Every structure is written in C-alpha cells, then in structure tokens.
C-alpha cells in the first residue's frame, strides 16, 4: 500500500527520526511466574531499556502511531501488536494542580513514568488492582507535581492544550484530563467522526495532525476503528496505572483493556542504531 500521508516531526532524544523507530529492535517475552501468571511486560520492558539506555528510547503511543502512518502495510508494525512505553494512571488531584481540587484525573505518561520494570514486579508481588499496579499516594501526587519517583521531571499538558495543538512534543511528556471525561468516551468501534472527536483518542495520539491519517490507514472494511478503555464504572482510588497496547490489522487499535499480567512486546532504538535502518525513499533518512 502506497503511503502519502504527512508525518509531523516529534522531538526525540538525540533527534531520533520516525525511520529510526521503523528500524527499531523488538523485545518480546511470554515469561510466567511460579503461579502461571504472565510477567512478560516487566521482562520485555527491562530488556528494551537495557538495550537503549542511557540515551535511547522505547517507542511510545504517539511515536508508534507516527511510525505506522509512514510504514508500508507489509511492515511488522502493521502485522503485530505492540506494548507501548505509555502508561495510563488514574487518581485524585488533591491540590487541583490541573483542574479542580480533589477532582479525579487521568494522566497519560509517554516515555517512562511510574511503571519501571522493578515497579511492575513490585505490583505483581503486591497483587494487581483491576489488572493494574496500585500506587502509593505519594507516587501519584508526585506525578501531578511533574516529578517522577526517581526525581526526574516531566512536563504535563492539560488535555485542552493537546487538543489545541502542541508542536515538537518530546519523547517524555504527559497529558492530564478529567477522569470523568475519559469515562464518558465510547469504548469500542468508532466511525471517522467519533474517532476524530473522542477526547481519549486525542489524548492518546497527542499529535492532532496524526488523527486523520492514522484513521485512514487503520480503518477496517466497514470504515471503523477501535479505541477501548476500562474506565466505565472503575473508581479512581486507590491510584493505579497500566501500560497501553497498539494492535495490528485486527483493528482493535488503541487497546485499553490489556493489563500488566500479559506478555510483552516493545520496540527500542539505541544511539548506535539510529539512522542505520532508514527507508531509502525517506526524505528524512540520515546516512
């Protein structure tokens, strides 16, 4: 399938291009613990981070969306599902840092946040909540202060800022939206208008210019595309979070039901790899 869609530039560590992500290395694990529960997400994410650290990246939802828009239909991004280095966290904004005081919020974090491999393993040992990691209040409160547990900083955008358009988004950033807004969005198949107008879709994709081209590439024969979430009826306390998945041509594209007891499949880009796997036809190919 020929692809003529324009892909908006995103600001990555070391200026990684979409072509670098298209040529990224894959890390997959279907490991289980002694009780037979899948722990592959923690295992595969650790493998990917070991490969890319300290200056590489593990692909996020916005980055893989951009890469799939550009990729040929034969590329493995269109032939398999992937876990993303994108987490969705819910909890209470006690101080009203983004909306009202004591309002439940959803915080989407791209590029690494609370859920490190060790933190995921800790959640396995403590027991998952709704197939998500249960957080300490301090972890979620710190995130809303734009501070991660390892003391790294992260910039969080309000949903309205993302909807209005933000240029040159970094690899690591977050999006905050009222939890009620996310709960009220449709979970399932969407026609084009519903997909383009869905606030949760907008927050997950993050780059407004990518909504329409991704829909056109991923829609099924009935011109529908799926966006799922588990938020209807779920309480935002205790604070909790899990990682997102992006599916293939099965059209279950932005899959929010999968939890942390699953097998993992990530894409990593290391500094030495950058530029080696560029498509020859790409105007952004370097060396």
Helix and strand string, N-terminal first?
A: HEHEHEEHEHEHEHEHHHEEEE
Mean pLDDT: 89
Residue ranges: pLDDT <50 for 5 or more in a row?
A: 8-14, 276-287
By DSSP (H or I, 4+ residues per run), the number of helices equals 10
Structural class: alpha+beta
Helical content class = 25-40%
Number of strands: 12
Proportion of β residues?
15-25%
Q: Count structural domains.
A: 1
User: Kindly, what is the distance between the CA atoms of the first and last residues, rounded to a whole number of angstroms?
Assistant: 26 Å
The radius of gyration computed from the alpha-carbon positions, rounded to a whole number of angstroms, is 18 Å
The biggest sheet amounts to: 7 strands, mixed
Write the layout of secondary structure elements.
Elements: H1 18-22, E1 25-29, H2 40-52, E2 57-58, H3 61-70, E3 82-93, E4 103-110, H4 117-126, E5 133-134, H5 137-144, E6 156-158, H6 159-164, E7 173-178, H7 179-183, E8 188-190, H8 192-197, H9 199-205, H10 211-218, E9 225-227, E10 240-246, E11 254-255, E12 264-269
Parallel strand pairs: 6-7
Antiparallel strand pairs: 1-12, 2-12, 3-4, 3-10, 4-7, 5-10, 8-9, 10-11
Describe this structure as you would to a colleague.
With 287 residues, the protein is of the alpha+beta class. It has one domain. The chain is built from ten helices and twelve strands. The chain has helices at residues 18-22, 40-52, 61-70, 117-126, 137-144, 159-164, 179-183, 192-197, 199-205, 211-218, and strands spanning 25-29, 57-58, 82-93, 103-110, 133-134, 156-158, 173-178, 188-190, 225-227, 240-246, 254-255, 264-269. The strands form three sheets. Strands 3, 4, 5, 6, 7, 10 and 11 form a seven-stranded mixed β-sheet that branches. Helix 2 (40-52) packs antiparallel against helix 4. The protein is globular, with a radius of gyration of 18 Å.
């Amino acid at each position: 399938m020929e692809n003529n869609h324009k892909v908006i530039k995103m600001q990555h560590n070391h200026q990684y291009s979409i072509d670098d992500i298209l040529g990224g290395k894959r890390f997959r694990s279907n490991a289980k613990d002694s009780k037979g529960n899948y722990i592959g997400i923690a295992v595969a994410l650790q493998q990917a981070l070991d490969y890319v650290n300290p200056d590489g990246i593990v692909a996020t939802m916005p980055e893989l969306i951009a890469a799939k828009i550009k990729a040929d239909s034969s590329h493995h991004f269109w032939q398999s599902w992937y876990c993303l280095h994108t987490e969705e966290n819910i909890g209470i904004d006690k101080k009203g840092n983004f909306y009202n005081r004591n309002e439940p919020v959803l915080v989407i974090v791209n590029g690494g946040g609370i859920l490190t491999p060790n933190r995921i393993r800790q959640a396995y040992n403590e027991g998952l909540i709704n197939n998500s990691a249960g957080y300490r209040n301090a972890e979620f409160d710190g995130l809303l202060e734009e501070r991660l547990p390892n003391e790294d900083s992260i910039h969080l955008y309000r949903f309205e800022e993302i909807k209005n358009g933000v240029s040159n988004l970094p690899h690591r950033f977050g999006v905050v939206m009222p939890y009620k807004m996310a709960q009220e969005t449709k979970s399932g198949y969407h026609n084009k208008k519903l997909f383009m107008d869905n606030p949760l879709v907008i927050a997950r994709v993050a780059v407004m210019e990518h909504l329409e081209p991704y829909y056109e590439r991923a829609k099924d024969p009935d011109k529908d595309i799926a966006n799922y979430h588990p938020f209807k009826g779920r309480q935002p306390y205790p604070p909790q979070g899990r990682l997102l998945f992006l599916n293939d041509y099965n059209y279950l594209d932005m899959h929010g039901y999968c939890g942390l007891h699953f097998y993992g499949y990530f894409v990593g880009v290391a500094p030495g790899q950058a530029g080696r796997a560029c498509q020859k036809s790409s105007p952004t190919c370097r060396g």
